[in-house]
Amino acid sequence: MADKSFDIHRIRAEIEADAETRRRQDPELARLERDIERAWIDVAPPGAVGSDQGELLLDRADRLALIDVDAPVGERRGVREVKGAIRKATYWYLRYVTDQVNAFSSVLTRLLRRMNERLEDVEHLVGIDRDDRDLLDPPATPSAATAAVIAREAGGGQVVVLSCGDGEVVAALDGAGCAAYGIDRDAVVLLPGVQRGLDLRTGDPQSHLDDLEAGSIDAVVLAGFVETLPTAMLVALIEVALDRVASGGRLIVAVAEPSERSPVEAELRRGRGLSPQTWAHLLDRRGAAVRVVDAPGPRITRLVTASKP
Amino acid sequence: MGCVVENFASHVTNDAEIAAHDFRDHQRFPAPELVIYQMSTGSSVAEYLLDTDAPLVLNYHNITPAQCFDPWEPHVGAELHAARRQLSRLTHHAFAAIADSAYNAAELRELGMEQVVVSPVLWRAPEARQGGAAGSGTRILFVGRVAPNKRFEDLLAMMAVLRTRRPDAVLDLVGGVSSDRYASALRELVVRLDLDDVVHFHGSVDDRTLDQMYTESTVYVSASEHEGFCVPLIEAMSARLPVVARDAAAVPETLGGAGLLVDGPDPTALATAVDRVLSDADLRSCMIELGVARARDFDLTTAEASLVESLRPLLEEV
Q1: pTM for the whole thing?
Q2: Under an 8 A CB cutoff, do B269 and A46 touch?
Q3: Closest approach of chain B CAs to the CA of A280, in angstroms?
Q4: How is A198-234 classified by DSSP, letter by letter?
Q5: Does residue A30 register a pLDDT over 50?
Q6: Residue B133 pLDDT > 60, yes or no?
């Protein structure tokens, strides 16, 4: 620190990894975070909290749906008597109105709950709600030797590695003269790479891709997370990825062959991830010039490289 | 520059530091060769300017996204939606714009403006302060209006997490209220999270009190999700306070690498960052020095010169 500078990128990564580790190891902290979230949802208007808090919002809708006919009259003598008299005099009318509103709200909230259940059923059927992080190891990551092949295929320029893990591929790309950076959801996994000086950032790979401008990047490497997505999402992802790559740029897919998954992984990841051949087929259908090249493995034994016309 | 300048506003108050006229009296003055319109919200002045032919330069300070206010104060949300529409029309009417951050400039370019220059905000550094060094314990400061885009709820959430590690932590919140409903919900949240004794809403304070608060604090924290520039960050750095802030909008640009950024509304990450800054003396001292140097980038004389240089070619065009 003597030179009055600090590696802000590294410290940020350490903080994010530290926070994530605490969250995983300390059930009390996870509970506290949920309590905080719930407390805010209780006091904020429905539109002010994130749409990802569906269940908590439904609870709130249930509570708000019941309109209380007994308006408070306060404690100040005099005022209380006047308000009380008004309440008594209008009670029959308020009761008549609130009964109807409550009946209507009750139907609406039941309908909301039913719609939510049906939506959850649909999500479950297509598999997008499945979180196998506690059930399975993360998908295969490219070895150093495979990373070297990816670096050769990338062709230079600015490259983003989506699901970068500890940065093996980013390091290889850096070594090949590319301006590479990586994105990974897991702050803990990427920390060693950051400490090696690699540009690795915590974030959702899919959201990062969405946020890039069209034609703004020379190459995109898709790894890891794409093995956990259902087909419909992968088809949409291909559209987005090809849009973000500059003309002449490349999309490189580094995935394991689903048919070679262990029985456990095959069952738990059924319907998710595609084989290199299917990736090649889909990219070819989108007008890219596609090549399938051998990789040294293990697990990832073929890479799909698509050049955008 | 030898210009004769008259200031106009939609609401003129007697206590304004600079003399101004009601814009409706504009006709009583000679026709301007150049009009500079400072835009940060919707205004009847904008409608007036859209109807005139005077050469117009926008001085853009950004507009709070309406979505932030919609659930809390729908009427303010509606005004902000209208302001965005006005901005869009003004960018087609004005021939150039000045923005106080690259973030704001990018917004104008996205709306189709080609001639946009970035010139720092005109900010006067206060007398030398000894914040950070003088503060003791864990005294956290945030300065900003109580508005939904400032995400006070995330600061409160951070406090709930931080106090499990630092029971002595205190959060001082300085700034007037922009949304009563939001302020009321925040007070309710303070009670629910059992933070009554450690979170203090001070409202608006005078400059002397603010100086004192900067001096007595140990770290400045911002969870704001939308800032077009954010002067309090510069004030904090100038006051020798290390800054921890959410990585959003123009905040990273304003900090210029001198503050610690945290992703998204994550109370644990924010609390961890504050804890790290307070427990790592080397980091803290480095952040303070970098912050002071960064604040000097916004020195008033330099900023004024930059603004003059930005305006000179525009004046030559008209």
Answers
A1: 0.80
A2: no
A3: 35
A4: --EEES-HHHHHHHSPTT-EEEEEEEGGGGGSBHHHH
A5: yes
A6: no
